[in-house]
Specification:
Helix content: under 10%
Structural class: mainly beta
Oligomer: single chain
Strand content: 25-35%
Radius of gyration: 19 Å
Order of helices and strands: EEEEEEEEHEE
Number of helices: 1
Shape: flat
Number of strands: 10
Length: 159
């Protein structure tokens, strides 16, 4: 499966995650055995900028400074699917790698490290700001090629 991503310059991304017939997994969010586990979904495959793909800046209008966008392409193998399946693709930025969405979400930055205008304009890497996130609709794969798609059923979380 080939995934092509395009985003505005201010929505940097560095991860593309693939979820295939995925089920929520329990995890201990606070390292306290007395509290109940929470659940999260763990991607089946993760591609990162610099390893499985490269983010390129495309200059859409050379005569206008900053009039461009970011784009990347990656390929994941879905060979070996034995039943009809669904795939969701999630694209995101990671704190410390991709700049946060400041000033679109100004209150998400660490206020202790942003006391001046110069601090706010330094890119804000690693300052816990909200990073970009986007996702696809489910992509349905007719693995047995019978012309119809049958849901794979409820995926149970391991005990």
């Amino acid at each position: 499966m080939t995934v092509e991503v395009a985003s505005p310059l201010w929505a940097e991304f560095d991860r593309i995650e693939f979820y295939v017939n995925n089920a929520p997994q329990p995890y201990d969010h606070d390292a306290d055995a007395a509290t109940r586990d929470r659940y999260r979904v763990i991607p089946n495959v993760v591609h990162t900028d610099g390893a499985e793909f490269s983010v390129a800046t495309v200059d859409d209008f050379p005569s206008i400074p900053g009039a461009g966008h970011l784009e990347a392409t990656t390929v994941v193998s879905l060979a070996g699917l034995s039943e009809d399946s669904w795939v969701v693709v999630l694209v995101r930025g990671t704190d410390g790698v991709s700049r946060p969405l400041f000033p679109f979400y100004p209150n998400s930055l660490d206020s202790s490290t942003n006391a001046s205008l110069a601090d706010l304009a330094d890119g804000n890497l690693g300052e816990v700001g909200m990073t970009a996130i986007a996702y696809s609709n489910p992509l349905f794969i007719d693995a047995d090629n019978d012309g119809s798609w049958t849901a794979p059923g409820v995926q149970l979380t391991p005990p």
